[in-house]
Amino acid sequence: MSKKRKHGGVKQGFDLFERAQRELAKGNVKDALRDAKVCYREAPDPERRMLLERAYSARAEQLQKAGLQDQAQNTFGELTELGITAPDVQAKLPRLRILLGLSHPASAGGTANVWDENPELLIELADQAVFHPQQVPGQYVEIHRDCQRIRAALEAVERGEDAAAADQLNDISRRSPYADWKLFVRGLSAFYAGDAERARANWDRLEPKRPAFRIAQTLLVHSGQLTADRAALNVANGLRRLAYAVESDPVREQLKTMSEHQRAGNSSGLFHAFRSFCQRFAKTHATLIERITDMLWKRSIREQRVDLLNRLIRIAPAPPLDPHWNRARALWSEYSTHSTYEATENYWQAYVKDILQGRFLQPDERGIAAGLICQRLAKMAVAAAHDEESHRPFPGFLGDAGYAAAFRQEAVGYYQQSIRHAPQLRGAYAELAKLHLESDEPSWAVKVYQSLLTHFPDDYETHVWLANYYLEDDKPDKAERYSREAQRLKPRDPATVTLMWSQRLAMMRLCAKKRKFAMARQEWELVQQSAPPDAEAYWLDLLRAAIEYKANNVAEAEKYVVAAETKLKDPTPIWMIMHTHAARYGLKREIKNDFGNRFKAAVAGACCSETAGQLTKVLLPFVARQIKYVGLATHQRLVLDYLQRCQGLAWNGDDLRHVAHFLMVADSWRHRALRDQLLAVGCARFPQDPIFPFLAGRAAMEKGPYLMDFQKPRDLFERALKANATAAHPLTAEAVKTAKNAISMLNQAAEMRGSMFFGESLDDDEYDDDEDYDEDEHEEYEEEYEEFSGRGTASAGGMLDEAELARIVPPVMMEMFKRAASFLGISVPELADRLMSGELTPEDIADGPPPPKGAFEGRRGKKQKASQR
């Protein structure tokens, strides 16, 4: 008889109800629900029913957290079919409906204010959505939208695209449940960038009970910025998970090896490890390989290591924006001392083809990129032209000037290509126009600026330039269009006021010369309305007098001349202005001669501050802009002679300011002593006015770097800047910039001179205590050296004598050498030796370096109206 086996069920005496309660309390919700169902079927009393309801509720919530949304909804359906009698389950019912997506927060049935009554529920959904967006019901559109932004920002930070991450965060409001995650992402971006202060500033504002704070604390402890005992919560579990994730990643060891090679400076080992890395992880870690490649090619260019760049090209995939490595090669060639201009040019041209033929940029971006590269090539050509000219200061004697012209022509071509590819590049137009002006081609510059206005019709600077160009060309009818546009754009700008004043004056003169006197008088009325603040009242009377003289209304003209005389103590400026108007308006010869004789007689009289100020104020714009008229040279000579007699005057500040400006612009070598004297008077009598120390500093720099006392002009410029802070008549922005640049240049020049003449030297007593040092032997050595080198003899030793120089150097240059040598107090052979060694430059020999360009500087030599703009 076989032995029977007992198949048991539940032991007798075992309470299934109690076991279900225990399982539910321990969190074994699945087992608790199973036992509760059996228990309720056996005895459906109210107590067991409430246990079953609690088990259903707990199981539905457990499935929802696990992401099993459909099963959770089925379990909740069974609960509602059973009916809910337990008060605690009834209280959880609205929250559970929302978590399962069975009810919208704004729907009826008591859930309209769920977010307001229970904000933790919204925060819980937001945190859950960041980790598991699929667990959040799809009808919660706002939660999903902000969740996508946070996750996209996190992915951008991981890729190193901090700007893209910031863009994703911009639309998340401060009251959003994702505001905590917004702070976390910002801190994470700073954490990866090594900015610990900014990272802590964001992470310290996180809510301590939320996951973002826990992750931030874990990262800070792991990085060593925070110790575990000082952390706000226990991060041991997070550290273990982080360490496991790092150690289990095979990339870690490879990156560690490359990092060690880089720190050791072992380039060969670094590239060998990177080659293995690319072969192994090309498909799984393409983004990381791209970032490492970007770092390595930039390092190769920075260190000028073409061998490293070529090796990287062989082992690594090309960057997405440089599919054939032409951009990297061009950058290396551009900054390398071992490459040529032609090689750099060829690489950039090849990269332009890559851009136009490739698909790695959007169609609208390709033209802009190609235009920027062509603009870069144009700048290279201009720099090459300047470099060529600096190495050939005397083209007629030392070489052919055609190379510089060829470079400039090449630059023009590249600028034109840049504009064709990207008409929106305003800088290309401006630089091309400037290049035409350098080449003395103002008509081409005008065409470029007019083309610029077709794409930038509201470009104020271009309208002003074109208006001034036509005004200086005495074509106010063509300038009027641009003047009006400038007035429309900036009606209150001082430059606009001055421009409209010049426009009205020129238009009035044009109408009078064409004998359209009604229009000329109408323009005179407009001139009165547009006069700048510094315009003198008697100028308007004299302008009307010139119109009436031109119209043969002599009696009417004399009335305006008399009216002007009543507004000045001394009529000398009136006679000079009327003599100028007679020449520019084409008045009759007898009228012109009459005012000329009056001026010559008056200017020989007694001097006064007001007359000197008015005379120089009138002449200043003509001399500064080199606007010629018959009699200008005579006026300038007589006024300079007048100023020469102004000794010991009680100067007015405004008058002396005009005189100082005029003397700086006139730049007459015969009157430099007068200029320096009056500038000293201005600095002493008007210390609060910055213009006098500014102009005095510029005048002090005219001596050149080898004869100038660096401290004096530097002190003057610093004094001018200090006075400018509180001045009633402050310097222009350009003058302030000039002063600051001059101070910087003087500091550098002083350091260079100190290192040249007072560099490292041996102490006088270095050999005093050396017993082996023989003074007699040293003297014997010096005698041998002098005998060998010829030092101390009548000849110049290794230098050419003056007769040999005369045979080599052209006569004109030889005369220049003699004058410079006499001025410097050295011999002509010594001057030539310093020139060949680089101690002196051709500019020092010719005329010394020019003063820094400022707002009040005039031009020298023959008029070139385009280049002075």
Mean pLDDT: 81
The termini sit apart by: 125 Å
Helix content: 55-70%
Overall shape: elongated
pLDDT < 50 stretches: 1-13, 106-114, 393-399, 756-797, 847-869
Radius of gyration using CA atoms only: 43 Å
What percentage of the residues does DSSP assign to strands (E)? under 5%
Largest sheet geometry:
none
How many helices?
A: 44
Structural class: mainly alpha
Q: Work out the number of β strands.
A: 0
Fold and architecture overview:
This protein is an all-alpha fold and 869 residues long. Helices cover 69% and strands 0% of the residues. It contains 44 helices and no strands. Helix 14 (251-264) runs antiparallel to helix 15 (267-281), helix 15 (267-281) runs parallel beside helix 17 (306-315) and helix 19 (341-357) packs antiparallel against helix 20 (363-391). The termini are far apart.
Q: Would you kindly provide a brief summary of this structure?
A:
The protein has 869 residues and is an all-alpha fold.
Keywords:
869 residues; mainly alpha; 44 helices; 69% helix; disordered N terminus; disordered C terminus
Ordered list of secondary-structure elements with their pairings:
Layout: H1 16-26, H2 29-42, H3 46-65, H4 69-82, H5 87-99, H6 114-117, H7 119-131, H8 141-159, H9 162-169, H10 179-193, H11 196-203, H12 211-223, H13 236-248, H14 251-264, H15 267-281, H16 286-302, H17 306-315, H18 326-335, H19 341-357, H20 363-391, H21 395-398, H22 402-421, H23 426-438, H24 442-455, H25 460-472, H26 476-489, H27 494-513, H28 517-529, H29 537-550, H30 554-565, H31 572-585, H32 589-603, H33 609-625, H34 632-644, H35 653-666, H36 672-685, H37 691-700, H38 711-724, H39 733-757, H40 775-789, H41 802-808, H42 811-824, H43 828-837, H44 842-846
Helix pairs in contact: 1-2, 1-3, 2-3, 3-4, 3-5, 7-8, 8-9, 8-10, 9-10, 10-11, 14-15, 15-17, 16-17, 16-18, 18-19, 19-20, 20-22, 22-23, 23-24, 24-25, 25-26, 25-27, 26-27, 27-28, 28-29, 29-30, 29-31, 31-32, 31-33, 33-34, 33-35, 35-36, 35-37, 36-37, 37-38, 38-39, 42-43
